[in-house]
Amino acid sequence: MKSLYLEKYDASIRYYDILGEGETIVFLPGLSVASIANFLSVTTNPKLHLHRSIMVDYIGSGVRDHSEIFSYDMENHAETVASILDHENIKSAIVVGHSMGGTVAIMLAISRPDLVSKLIVGEGNLVPGGGSGTSKITSYPKDEFIEKIYPQWCEERLESAKKGERMATITSGMWKTANAEGLYENSRSLVELDLGVKEKYFNLKIPKLFVYGEHSIPKNSRDAKPDTPDPSELKENGITIDTVANAGHFLMFDNLDGFLEVITNFINNDG
User: Fold this and answer.
1) Which residues span the domain enclosing 94?
2) What does each C-alpha distance from 81 to 43, 58, 93, 170, 247 come to in angstroms?
3) Which of 21, 31, 53, 249 could form a disulfide with 43 if both were Cys (CB 3.0 to 4.6 A apart)?
């Protein structure tokens, strides 16, 4: 693991750098999740072994620092990711983001288009309102969530994991290591996302792929949510869409092979 101190925020951002000779792929994880939990099985798969892979732990997430002066807005997360790429002298990279990471990836491409050659978003938020998780988190006052609700949720997930419930087993460890304040503030930032993000995403002049899980793709515009937009709207705006079979929101956990097939097909496509 590498660490980069950011004087502006008096905090370090940490990241894993898996060396390879091919074009760099940057992996941005979901809400307050350690990147190694989200993407280790992806980056170490033989299908991607020729690429250099960088997995980022945001400030306040994963193996992280907490900063009293970091706002946790998606734009600021994107800025810290750009700092890593500049520090590593990476001029351009394929960027893959899941959930919140998809929104951070979009903000990176908007603010630093020079750094992003292809953009892959897995059910990232395009409009304000948040997903079911973030909207529930922010329905509580911040202090109550940090001091009472979050520890209670962690305990409940651990008990469910002990009973063998699959998603609880996957997420209980992630949540136990997350920073509660960072989790709340990241959720707030997604719920309050700027209304102009979607249009800016549509206008990006790079190849773009939006990935849905088969079980979460909306049937029509009425079923669309902030992180699962209407597929027809994306197509109309020149965005390639694909679906991971037998998967919900947790794409790489539900169907690793399917997720790898979808992203490698797009990465290897010269179009």
Assistant:
1) 2-128+193-268
2) 18, 8, 12, 25, 28
3) 53
